[in-house]
Design a protein that fits this description.
20% of the residues lie in helices and 32% in strands. With 174 residues, it is α+β, with helices and mostly antiparallel strands. A hairpin with a 6-residue loop joins strand 6 and strand 7. Helix 2 packs antiparallel against helix 3.
């Protein structure tokens, strides 16, 4: 009986070997869905205290180039631009924003609310113009460590008062 079982098993193996292989390969398994990491939401703006002189500086640096200084993070779009138009005898301060509004500038020695209009020379920016001899430009440059640009529902810019500001102003006073 054992012999009979062996012969039957061997016969089945031989018969199975005669079946032709399928002509098409089996379908590839479906790819597994790849989970895409969701970026964390940007941190909420820190609550600003009552004294603007204690507010954190807006990240970035001033960069000066003959009659023009830009403020922002290297490689990014400038957040603020100060430029001299020598032919028009005007110093223009621009900041990000597009809807006309009044902007308030705060320094350690002065505060001024000034109407701002879209900057035709820098799309996506609002501009405020000054005569080169306007003493408020000196207040910006000599403010103790920083000055603030705020208003119109735009993010507050707390910008360091570095020498680049006065270099642009002096370019226009020549």
């Amino acid at each position: 009986m054992r012999l009979l079982s062996l012969l039957a098993g061997a016969g089945l193996v031989l018969i199975a070997g005669c079946v032709p292989a399928p002509s098409t390969p089996p379908p590839a398994p479906a790819p597994r869905p790849v989970s895409v990491p969701v970026p964390a939401p940007p941190p909420a703006a820190p609550a600003l205290g009552a004294d603007w002189r204690d507010w954190p500086l807006t990240p970035g640096d001033w960069r000066y180039r003959a009659g023009r200084a830009t403020y922002g993070v290297a490689g990014g779009t400038p957040l603020a631009i100060l430029r001299c138009d020598l032919a028009a005898r005007r110093v223009t301060l621009s900041r990000t924003g597009s809807a006309p509004t009044a902007l308030t500038l705060r320094t350690t020695s002065a505060v001024r609310a000034i109407p701002a209009t879209p900057d035709l020379g820098a799309p996506g920016m609002l501009a405020i113009s000054f005569a080169p001899n306007d003493s408020f430009l000196d207040a910006l440059g000599f403010s103790r460590g920083r000055f603030v640009i705020e208003g119109g529902g735009l993010p507050v810019l707390v910008i360091p008062a570095w020498p680049e500001i006065l270099r642009v102003v002096e370019d226009c006073r020549k």
